[in-house]
Design brief:
Rossmann fold
C-alpha cells in the first residue's frame, strides 16, 4: 500500500519527482566516484549483421551504452555547438566529444555533484565542458546551439512540455534535437503529443528501439551484477539492481511485457 502511494505521488507531483531524482543522482555522484563508471543508460544492442561500431580499447567495456549514444546522436556533430541536457556522469559526452569533434560540447545536469564529478573524470577532453542547469529553465541564450542531445534523462523531469520549449528556444534554425527515452505506452503517446505540439519543432525520425534496449540489458546483466556486488553495500543492492534494469527487476519486466517502450527521435527546428 505504501509503495502504491509513493508511486502515485511520483507520477502526480512534478516537484517531488524532480527533487527525488536530483537527490538520487547527487548521492550517486558523491558516494561512487570510480573512473570506470561513467555511463548510466540501459544500452543498445545492434541487430545481428549490422556494422560493428569501432571503439578504442578503453571504450570497449562501455560498448552497449556507447551504442545507445551513437544510435541517438545520428546527425553530424563535427564543428557544431552541441548541448547535452542531462549529461549524468559524462561518459556519453566524453565519447561524442572525442570521436565527433564538435566545436564545443556542453554537458548540462541538474545535479551540481554530478557536474563536479564530470569535471574531474573528463578533464582534458578537447572542447568538452560541464555546467549545472535545469532542463526546464536553461540558463542559455536563444539560438545558441546546433544540436541538443538528451539520452534517457527526461523521465526525471517535472514538465516535459517546458523541456521541449527550452529545446526549441536554444536551438538555431535548422538545428537538431537527438532524443531517446522510455515510458509506459500511454505516457509515450502523451510525450509524442507534447513534442509535436511544440512550436518550431518537427519530428523527422521516430523509431521504437525497445527490443534492442532489452537485448542490451540481457547482454550486460552479468557485468552489472558484478559491479553492484563489488561497489554497493548489501542493503542497497536490490535498489541498485532495479535502477540498473537487472533481469529480475520491474523495469526489465516492463520492457519484456510491452508495458514500457523505448523510443528514439530526431527532431528538427524549422
Amino acid at each position: 500500500m505504501l509503495l502504491r502511494v509513493a508511486v502515485w505521488w511520483l507520477e502526480n507531483s512534478p516537484l517531488l519527482r524532480r527533487l527525488l531524482w536530483r537527490w538520487w543522482y547527487g548521492r550517486l555522484a558523491q558516494q561512487f566516484q570510480q573512473r570506470d563508471w561513467t555511463f548510466m543508460n540501459y544500452g543498445f544492442a545492434r541487430d545481428e549483421g549490422a556494422p560493428t561500431l569501432r571503439l578504442d580499447a578503453a571504450d570497449e567495456p562501455d560498448r552497449l551504452c556507447i551504442q545507445l549514444y551513437a544510435e541517438t546522436a545520428s546527425v553530424p556533430l563535427a564543428d557544431r555547438e552541441v548541448i547535452e541536457i542531462g549529461s549524468g556522469r559524462g561518459g556519453g559526452a566524453s565519447y561524442l566529444a572525442r570521436t565527433h569533434r564538435p566545436r564545443r560540447y556542453l554537458g548540462v545536469d541538474f545535479s551540481a555533484s554530478a557536474v563536479a564529478l564530470c569535471r574531474k573524470l573528463h578533464a582534458g577532453v578537447a572542447g568538452l565542458e560541464f555546467a549545472p542547469g535545469d532542463a526546464e529553465n536553461l540558463a542559455l541564450p536563444d539560438a545558441s546551439c546546433d544540436v541538443v542531445v538528451n539520452v534517457e534523462s527526461s523521465h526525471c523531469y517535472g514538465h516535459i512540455d517546458r523541456f521541449f520549449r527550452e529545446v526549441a528556444r536554444v536551438l538555431r534554425p535548422g538545428g537538431h534535437f537527438c532524443y531517446t527515452d522510455f515510458r509506459t505506452v500511454a505516457d509515450m503517446a502523451k510525450l509524442e503529443a507534447a513534442l509535436t505540439a511544440t512550436p518550431g519543432l518537427r519530428v523527422v525520425e521516430r523509431a521504437e528501439i525497445t527490443a534492442r534496449v532489452l537485448a542490451a540489458l540481457r547482454a550486460d546483466d552479468a557485468r552489472k551484477r558484478r559491479l553492484i556486488d563489488d561497489l554497493v553495500p548489501p542493503r542497497l543492492r536490490h535498489l541498485f539492481g532495479e535502477f540498473a534494469g537487472l533481469s529480475d527487476g520491474q523495469i526489465f519486466r516492463g520492457f519484456e511485457s510491452g508495458e514500457l517502450i523505448y523510443c528514439r527521435f530526431v527532431v528538427r527546428k524549422d
